[in-house]
Amino acid sequence: MTATETPLEAQLDDVSFDQMKRLCGLVEYDESKDPFPVKSLDALTFVVGNATQTALHYQVAFGMEVIAYSGPENGTRDHKAFVLKSGSARFVIKGGVTKDSPLLDHHRRHGDGVVDISLEVTDVDKCVEHARSQGATVLVEPHDVSDDFGTIRTAAIAAYGETIHSLVDRSRYEGPYLPGYLPQKGSYRKPEGAPKRIFQAVDHVVSNVELGKMDDWVSWYNRVMGFVNMAEFVGDDIATDYSALMSKVVANGNHRVKFPLNEPALAKKKSQIDEYLEFYDGPGVQHIALATNDILATVDALRTAGVEFLDAPASYYEDAELRARIGDVRVPIEELQKRHVLVDRDEDGYLLQIFFKPLGDRPTVFYELIERHGSLGFGKGNFKALFEAIEAEQHRRGNL
Ligand SMILES: [Fe+2]
Question: pTM here?
């Protein structure tokens, strides 16, 4: 797809294709040869213990806006669901209302987490047919759903653990999200002078799978979704003295949708992936990277709202080798150090990134902020520093 074609641009609201290209490292590719053409990440759906308060958190701290709602007031008996947006990122926050809601069973097993990484596609039937031919489990067959705003065509396939990929063709739909959801604004009002938003898009979604299963899932995304392999990190690159993991990255043709997949590696102590698998009770989404064009301002806004980040080890910014590799970045390194923002550089450019502490009660899903300047990577050079910071937290939780 070239920058002059607009189907992707049309559904990115006020984030242009060129902005997305810069923010998330998109590349050109030939969509006509793609067996499973993906337009974008449609939404991330979370099941949480208290959707009402979680939705408020995403408004107050993450600067997101509620755009739609479904719940007992408009015909959904067993759960509440709030749809929030920030640029092209869309989150759906669900929580069970009645005691027999299946969402409560899910929540008991996994705690707060991502249940559905839904993808917007142009041809649901073609994608499902291809997925089935490659051995994927089709959970929901392609079908139409309509309301006053039009019709969507949708289906769903099973991914790792209890995570699913819904597929949505919304080309015939004008509503705020899906049929059954009504437009709604949140009750929260941003303070005067607050920025319109503090992040623009979801850059990548990382999963943790069981020991020995990473290559199976890489192959699954290759076959079922036609995803290509990106960077690959194995072994020493991301090992500390105590814990280790292996990670590979798959992406759709233009890299709009990027899924790094981790598995634990053998090490002296329990790795952060093992800790996740224990507390999430199986494989699932580990972290979500949010793309921002001003990571310093975003970190400041989030910290003011009480969001906590992982601290970079003090030695990080004094490391001569690192300093030499980083070279010139757009802000003084002291500003990065003050905020614990990490830097990584590769042959294409550099990126700034920082990792959050888990937002929920369990040491499972967390966020990352990423500001790309040409780099198409994921911060490989920072993995060691990051893991040491995570291990310090693991130790504090008594899980190392
Ligand atoms: Fe990441």
Answer: 0.92
